[in-house]
Design goal:
Blueprint: H1 8-22, H2 28-43, H3 50-63
Organism: Methanothrix soehngenii (strain ATCC 5969 / DSM 3671 / JCM 10134 / NBRC 103675 / OCM 69 / GP-6) (Methanosaeta concilii)
InterPro entries: Ta0600-like_sf (IPR023130), UPF0147 (IPR005354)
Protein name: UPF0147 protein MCON_1675
Length: 69
């Protein structure tokens, strides 16, 4: 979010993912699904730097391990 090499719209989306994940009133599985959806959308942006895309994929992979129970 603080990397100036990353386009502003990507940084805004990353901030919204952070907000979703920090919300204590929402079920963990729902937070993970919402975050994964946003991360998937921004990882397909053609303007995203490769190092940022890799980081997003890593975060999404970690979120996918959250159980749906």
């Amino acid at each position: 979010m603080s990397d100036d090499a990353v386009p502003r719209n990507i940084r805004r989306s990353a901030e919204s993912v952070k907000t979703i994940l920090m919300d204590e009133s929402v079920n963990e599985a729902i937070k993970a699904a919402s975050a994964i959806s946003i991360l998937d959308e921004i990882s397909n942006d053609p303007n995203i730097p490769l190092h940022t895309r890799t980081l997003i994929w890593n975060v999404a992979s970690q979120l996918e391990t959250i159980p749906v129970s």
